[in-house]
């Protein structure tokens, strides 16, 4: 039989061990929380900002059916597809402004993506690096676009001209809406065809 004093000593040691274990666990949790708090408060790496460059926009003018050239300073990414999307977004933002010369609602959100690929006619072109741009418009932009042959044509030509002015290898443009082919823009401008960027100069009014 274990003597009474040994039983008391064993109980005291057990209680002390459990208490010490609880204290150590609590200290470990506090240290972990401080570590996480330090990580959360640490400054994150600043995102890279593209440098400003000059971009050329061919802006449609409904008053005389022309395309007016305007220079804008924009932060342009190096990737050509991303660059094209940013530039067209700026063009669409101008169209969405109050009292715009070519009013179309939606702004930059009207451009979903711009894809660049080698032009199928590059081998027959004077530019062996000729590219086809596929402009994917959003359904909301198309739904809010004013209907009319002239206004729809001006939108298409301004897109084609703006792309070529900033990325000269783009010689052809195709259009999608929400990733699918659509017969027309708002009832008139044909979106099933391939547009030549030269059309922005030779048709739809004089480019200035």
Summed up:
This protein is an alpha+beta fold. It is built from five helices and six strands, in the order H-E-E-H-E-E-H-H-E-E-H. The N and C termini lie far apart (110 Å).
Tell me about the biggest sheet?
4 strands, mixed
The whole-angstrom Rg is: 32 Å
How confident overall, as mean pLDDT? Answer: 84
Shape: elongated
Give me the side-by-side strand order of the main sheet. Answer: 3-4-5-6
Contiguous uncertain segments of 5+ residues: 38-47, 203-208
How many beta-strand runs? 6
Reading the helices and strands in chain order gives: HEEHEEHHEEH
* Percent range for β-strand residues: 15-25%
What is the helical fraction, as a range of percent?
A: 25-40%
Helix count from the secondary structure assignment: 5
Query: Structurally, how many domains make up the residues?
Result: 2
Structural class label = alpha+beta
Give the CA-CA distance, first to last residue. Answer: 110 Å
Model description:
There is one protein chain. By secondary structure, the chain is an alpha+beta fold. It folds into 2 domains: 1-44; 52-202, no CATH class. The protein contains 5 helices and 6 strands, in the order αββαββααββα. The strands form 2 sheets. The protein has a 4-stranded mixed sheet with strand order 3-4-5-6. The chain has a two-stranded antiparallel ribbon with strand order 1-2. A hairpin with a 4-residue loop joins β1 and β2. α2 (80-95) runs antiparallel to α4 (149-166). The chain is elongated. The N and C termini lie far apart (110 Å). The relative contact order is 0.13. Residues 38-47 and 203-208 have low confidence and may be disordered.
């Amino acid at each position: 039989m274990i003597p009474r004093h040994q039983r008391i000593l064993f109980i005291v040691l057990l209680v002390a061990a459990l208490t010490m274990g609880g204290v150590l666990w609590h200290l470990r949790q506090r240290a972990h929380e401080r570590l996480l708090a330090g990580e959360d408060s640490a400054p994150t790496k600043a995102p890279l900002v593209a440098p400003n460059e000059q971009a050329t926009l061919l802006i449609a003018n409904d008053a005389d059916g022309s395309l007016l050239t305007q220079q804008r300073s924009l932060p342009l990414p190096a990737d050509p597809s991303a660059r094209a999307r940013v530039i067209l977004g700026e063009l669409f933002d101008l169209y969405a402004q109050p009292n715009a010369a070519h009013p179309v609602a939606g702004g930059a959100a009207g451009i979903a993506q711009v894809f660049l690929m080698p032009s199928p006619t590059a081998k027959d072109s004077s530019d062996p690096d000729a590219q086809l741009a596929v402009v994917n418009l959003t359904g909301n932009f198309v739904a809010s676009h004013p209907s009319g042959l002239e206004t729809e044509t001006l939108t298409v030509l301004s897109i084609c001209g703006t792309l070529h002015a900033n990325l000269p290898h783009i010689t052809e443009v195709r259009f999608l809406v929400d990733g699918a082919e659509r017969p027309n823009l708002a009832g008139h401008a044909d979106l099933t065809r391939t547009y030549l960027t030269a059309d922005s100069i030779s048709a739809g009014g004089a480019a200035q």
